Task: structure prediction
Amino acid sequence: MTRTDTASVNGSPMRMMVATPAGAGLHPGIVVMCHIGGLDAFTADRCDRLAAEGFVAIAPDIFHHHAWMEDRNERRATLRDHLMLDDINAAIDHAVSSANADPRRLGILGHCLGGRTALLGAGGITRLRALAMYYGGRTMASWGDVLPSPFDMIRNIKGPVAGFFGNLDTSPSPADVNLIEAEMRRHAIAVEFHRYDGAGHAFQDHTEPDRYNQPAADDAWQKTLQFFKETLERA
Result:
């Protein structure tokens, strides 16, 4: 089960979901970037699943810089890329200092909004060595105009990438996915993208029955676990 810890980031208290595996010693660590719902049941479920497979999972609340807004578009509009990088760095520090995450074996995972911010983190933080990105849209614009866009930071990624996308999605569209993959290959990043026919946006979110596609969700999750085990457990 996840626990809730708190860290101070730029003078603001930030909640974090933390799930740890059984057993002593250091474990690979995964930063779990939340979707637009924040630290909700889906985020907790992903953290618990990762911990059950031997990973320290930590999910920072990227919405802590402003009061919570019920409208998701207004909530999204409060986000700034440079502040989210601070949040990710703080989560990594906490995972290493308080949850037995191995600082040499760190990855990042995200769905939807979290897919975008996971791409941002992988491009902006060199100690992250693996990225699993689920249907992250809006990657080609900078939020806050302090940093380049996540797309423009692809060149800085320091490890392999796995991506999971529904072919019925419109953000990112299949054309967007092709552009992201081509940019990664242009910079000689090891990348493997998986595309699912009949699946749309948020196909792995079991809390949204209208979007959930179990065959695609199950296949993508097994591939995600295999990816992190191959890239981080033996790093």
Notes: The chain has one domain: 3-233. The chain has a mean pLDDT of 97. Helices lie at 41-52, 72-77, 81-98, 113-124, 174-186, 214-233. The beta strands are 3-9, 12-19, 27-33, 56-60, 101-111, 131-134, 161-166, 191-196.
